[in-house]
Amino acid sequence: VQLVESGGGLVQAGGSLRLSCAASGFTFSSSAMNWYRQALGKEREWVATSSSAGGSTNYVDSVKGRFTISRDNAKATVALQMNSLTPEDTAVYYCNTRPYARNYWGQGTQVTVSS
Q1: In whole angstroms, how large is the CA radius of gyration of the chain?
Q2: How far apart are CA 86 and CA 112, in angstroms?
Q3: CA atoms within 13 A on the CB side of 46
Q4: Pick from 26-30, 39-43, 51-55: least confident
Q5: What is the mean pLDDT of the chain?
Q6: Can you tell me the distance from the alpha carbon of 108 to that of 21, in angstroms, rounded to the nearest whole number?
Q7: Residue 16 DSSP SS3
Q8: Which SS3 state, helix, strand or coil, does residue 5 take?
Q9: Residues contacting residue 62 through CB under 8 Å, at least 6 positions apart
Q10: pLDDT tens-digit profile of 71-105?
Q11: Which residues contact residue 79 at a Cβ distance below 8 angstroms, ignoring those fewer than 6 apart?
Q12: For residues 48 and 34, is the Cβ–Cβ distance under 8 A?
């Protein structure tokens, strides 16, 4: 299983970023996909989940209405559109899946939001 994130960077508060995760090594269309984040000095936090078909999504309360998770099963990619970013969103963002009853993680991509 391989997960490769991209799309992080530095953005001003109120701006937007789109993260992408390219997946391989498992049956992508059968697996729920998740985004997590970890801010410096804090525990890793779940952010969003997309069901395997993409018809069901869930978000942590702090990003509801601002972030959108989406997936393309034909391309085996999952994205996280992040709007109205605040400095509190600054973190390393990780793609995650659990296709074989264990966690798999990408290398992470840094998102920094300046005030």
Answers
A1: 13
A2: 9
A3: 12
A4: 51-55
A5: 97
A6: 9
A7: coil
A8: strand
A9: 88
A10: 999 999 999 999 999 999 999 999 999 998 899 99
A11: 18, 19, 20, 21, 69, 70, 71, 72
A12: yes
* CA–CA separation, 40 and 87 (whole Å): 12
Rounded to an integer, what distance in angstroms lies between the CA atom of residue 67 and that of residue 63? 6
Tokens of 88: 């509190």
Per-residue pLDDT tens over the stretch 36-45: 999 999 999 9
Q: Which structure tokens are listed for 112?
A: 């920094």
Sign of the C-alpha dihedral, residues 111, 67, 7, 1? Answer: positive
Look at strands 17-24 and 45-50 and give their pairing.
Answer: unpaired
